[in-house]
């Protein structure tokens, strides 16, 4: 009975499968799975993705902006053209060097002094003509009265150079900056810079930078400290033709033909000077500046206001020839005083009382 039922079930399954296969049409095998798809051509594999229709893109990234060199870049071939924009009132004027280069000139031509407007120059050079006329009249009268002779102060100012320089405000106190000012006073400028270089003080770094600036200003603005350079130039020009090749190949050591001068300072120390044009710190003093304000946060939300002091340093730079002159003047003054107060055992005196008896 079981075998009969199994055979009957298998026959029913075979009939059902055969009926379904007969209902499948030929179009079903050749048709596409998507009803709206276009028929593919023989070159469909070569077509790009852009030709096919796809979903619409709602956002596109902005175009990439290419960079350019800055106006002062060292990699630019030449000077940049003027930037013409509507945001400014007027475009930037092109530099004169570009205009001169376009015209074929090597350097921009400036108007000669005689071609300039004298009225514009007079307003700047002589803003108060009446005061200037009175001052000139006063100086002429003084020169005539003195018969052209210069005072001692004028002679010193014409023959010696000096420079007074003041630093910016240092964030330190007078008590802390005062010892450094006393340390560099009277020393050579190079020695003072060396002292500040190896000093343990916090303000010594600012003082060192200020001394270097003052030294450069004295060299450029006053022409101080050129003795070694002049001696070096003279030694280079005085070489023979045989020694010229050696001068070109070897470095020239600075030499000074002046004899060394040994002088005694006011504090009793002796100093030997080989270059009269070398720079030294004649005076150094401290200036009290303004007080700043800084908050100091304390407990329980309290804030204290601190008043940090600011101080500056002023120096007077002179050449060694000034110190030599001052030493010579002190020596001459001492010699005059000694000659005036010479002690003698029996000085020559006039006979005032004439009698026949001795007075002793």
Explained architecture:
- There is one protein chain.
- The protein is an alpha+beta fold.
- It has a three-stranded antiparallel β-sheet with strand order 1-7-4.
- A hairpin with a 5-residue loop joins strand 2 and strand 3.
- The longest helix is centred in the first third of the chain and has 22 residues.
- One of its GO terms (cellular component) is large ribosomal subunit.
- One of its GO terms (molecular function) is structural constituent of ribosome.
Question: What is the compact description of this entry?
Answer:
By secondary structure, the chain is an alpha+beta fold. Helix content is about 40%, strand content about 10%. The protein has 12 helices and 7 strands.
């Amino acid at each position: 009975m079981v075998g009969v039922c199994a055979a009957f079930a298998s026959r029913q399954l075979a009939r059902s499968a055969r009926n379904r296969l007969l209902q499948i049409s030929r179009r079903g095998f050749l048709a596409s799975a998507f009803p709206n798809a276009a028929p593919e051509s023989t070159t469909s594999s070569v077509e790009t993705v852009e030709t096919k229709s796809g979903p619409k893109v709602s956002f596109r990234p902005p175009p990439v902006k290419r960079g350019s060199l800055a106006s002062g870049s060292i990699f630019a071939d030449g000077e940049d053209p003027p930037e013409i924009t509507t945001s400014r009132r007027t475009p930037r004027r092109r530099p004169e060097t570009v205009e001169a280069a376009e015209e074929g000139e090597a350097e921009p031509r400036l108007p000669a002094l005689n071609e300039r407007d004298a009225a514009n120059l007079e307003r700047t050079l002589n803003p108060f003509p009446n005061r200037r006329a009175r001052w000139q009249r006063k100086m002429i009268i003084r020169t005539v009265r003195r018969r052209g002779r210069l005072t001692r102060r004028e002679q010193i100012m014409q023959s010696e150079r000096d420079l007074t320089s003041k630093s910016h405000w240092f964030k330190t106190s007078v008590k802390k900056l005062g010892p450094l000012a006393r340390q560099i006073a009277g020393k050579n400028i190079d020695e003072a810079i060396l002292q500040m270089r190896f000093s343990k003080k916090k303000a010594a770094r600012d003082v060192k930078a200020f001394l270097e600036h003052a030294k450069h200003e004295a060299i450029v603005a006053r022409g101080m400290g050129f003795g070694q350079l002049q001696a070096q130039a003279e030694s280079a020009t005085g070489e023979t033709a045989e020694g010229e090749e050696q001068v070109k190949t070897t470095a020239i050591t600075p030499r000074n033909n002046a004899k060394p001068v040994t002088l005694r300072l006011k504090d009793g120390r002796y100093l030997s000077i080989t270059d009269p044009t070398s720079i030294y710190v004649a005076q150094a003093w401290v200036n009290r500046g303004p007080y700043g304000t800084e908050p100091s946060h304390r407990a329980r939300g309290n804030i204290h206001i601190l008043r940090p002091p600011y101080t500056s340093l002023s120096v007077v730079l002179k050449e060694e020839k000034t110190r030599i002159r001052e030493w010579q003047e002190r020596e001459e003054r001492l010699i005059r005083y000694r000659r005036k107060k010479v002690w003698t055992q029996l000085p020559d005196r006039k006979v005032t009382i004439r009698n026949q008896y001795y007075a002793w």
